[in-house]
Structures are given as C-alpha cells and as structure tokens.
Amino acid sequence: MVGLGLGLGLGLGLGHRLVRSPLLLPLSAKELLPNPASPASFSFRQAPRTFCAMASSAVGTRYNHSFQLPPTNEPAVSVDWLHSNLRDPDLKVLDASWYMPDEQRNPLQEYQVAHIPGAIFFDVDGISDRSTNLPHMLPSEKAFAAAVSCLGIQNKDGVVVYDGKGLFSAARVWWMFRVFGHDRIWVLDGGLPRWRASGYDVESSASSDAILKASAASEAIEKAYHGHDVGPITFETRFQPHLVWTLDQVMKNIDEKSHQHIDARSKARFDGAAPEPRKGIRSGHVPGSKCVPFPQMLDGSQTLLPAEELKKRFEDEGISLDKPVITSCGTGVTACILALGLHRLGKHDVAVYDGSWTEWGGHPDTPVNQSS
What we know:
This protein has helices spanning 6-12, 29-32, 79-85, 107-113, 141-150, 170-179, 191-197, 208-225, 247-256, 267-271, 307-315, 335-344, 356-362; strands at 17-19, 76-77, 91-95, 120-121, 158-162, 185-188, 202-204, 244-245, 260-263, 290-291, 325-328, 351-353. The chain is α/β, with parallel strands linked by helices.
C-alpha cells in the first residue's frame, strides 16, 4: 500500500506508477484509511506553500485542438474515447469523486490509491462557497476562477470529469463549469468503474505536481473568500445565472409555476416517509414539485441511459420536455444528474436549485408538503 496522507506523499516525493487495472470492487474505508475515525474529512493544510502557474487564455477565442472534441450538446464521453485522447495536452481530466457521509469513503485517499493517468483531484466540498454553512454550494466567480486556474485548466481546454461511483458527483462538476461559462466539459460515462472494467490502466499514488495543484486550489479558495490576492488567473468565467436558482426563486415558482420542479431524491424522502440524512431537516417536498429519483437516469452499469429511455422516464412522471425545468435534490449533487439527462434530450437550460432540500427543509418559513 502506498502512502496516503498528503504529508506522507509529499515527504516521500512519491512519483506515480501505472497499474494494470483488474476488475476490482471499491476499496473499503478500512482498507483505505490509516485513521478510520474521520474517513470523510481531509485537509491540505500540511502541504507546503503552493502557486498557480501563469498561462495565457482568452474568453471567446476560437481554439484549434489536435483532437476532435465531442459535441457540447452531448454531455458524456465513453471510456474508449477518453483512452484514445488521454495524452492530448488540451484535454484535462478531473477526478471529482464525492461520497455521502454515511458511505465512510474518502475521495482524496481513493484518488491517491487509483486514478485515471494524469487526472487531477477536484475537491467538491473544498471548491465551494465558504460564506455559508450549506454543503458544497457554488463558489463565487473569483473563487472558482482561482481554483480552476490552480488546477492547470484554461478556457481553451476540453475537460472530462469522472467519479468513483460511475456517474454521481461528476455531474455536479459538469454543471459547475457550465454555470461559469465553460461548455467544453463532459462526464465520463460509467466513471472509474467502467474505465477499470474496460481493462484500462490506472495510476497508483499521485505525483507531487498533482497534489500541489489540488492543494493550491484549496488555498486559492480560502484567499478569495478572505479578500486576499489569489495570484495569476488562467481561467476566466462567464457566469450563466439562468442555470442556478435560489430559495427565493423556488418560492416564487410555487405560485407562478413558470418552471416544472423535479426532485432527484428517493420517493420515500420526497413523500416524507423516510427521514432526511441530515439532522434538523424536515421531511417532504416543495409544493408542486415532482419526483424523478436520479437512479432512473442510469443503467445497471451506472452509465447514462439512451435518449429514448430518458425521455420515457420523464414523461412517465408527467414532465413535459417542451416546458422549462428546475431540478433539486438533497444538497445539489444528484439534481445535476437529472440536468445531465435532460441535456442529452436537448434541454440545455435546466436550472439547478443549489441549496436544494438541505436549505429548503432546514428553513423555518418554507412550505413543505408530504404525500399521504
């Protein structure tokens, strides 16, 4: 087993090595963690001072790539496509694995054990709004630009994002990039499990450069929210406000009904029959919303369903694809899987309620319905 902690990895100057990928089940928390008492938390604070490299980029510029980018109206790429284009310098790969607290899995440590060659870790909890107690809320434009610049991403780059479950938190990062105006972003269909099942190599342990980039991104977020200089910016944002909704907009929509509201949580949570996983959050749903649990977007191998099957899943719940849609879930992660499925169906303007049920159900003055 390679060293897992950031301090250990940096201290030993670990390089990366390719490992032939067998068909493996996900590693358990006990196999991964030297200290299983806090498996869902990690910190970059022990890393040395880091910096973001300067590079030139410009928003709105037409870029010439040495490879053929997929169309932006298709939100996912196959593992075969990624394998064929993996070494192109204008293609960046992000490991955006994130897990529910009760899963007892640490995404950073799993990244260090095995990741797609050249992938950089994207910290879903860390690259977030530090001014709120709500989990992994969308960061400010300045903070996102600073963090992404530290990850070595420029506006000219194509970006492929994956996660360790197949298709889960990667959809959230796909949505984040689109909110900030970057459309050359795709999820890896089936994620790391599909990559490994296809027999493609993974890297064991992260290079010091990869760890420094992830550390620098976390540090840049902190600086941005404290009003400090964040260093060179190589990624410029173009905020797309129509893709993200607030509590006030959702409240207004209850009466106006301008958008169909789809909730990605389980039917039991939507109905109020099952308790919420976070304490202090009421059970139920936003009045007028409908439930399409996010697993209905995926097949048994955690890949996105074909368009005709996706269309049927929405229409079976009374969703009209000709009308505007907003999606929500528990904390704004799986709502993005619904947005991903709708994107495949040609709906590219789906908004996500960022605060989702954690904000709505935790607010004392929001109306909540329960199904009998």
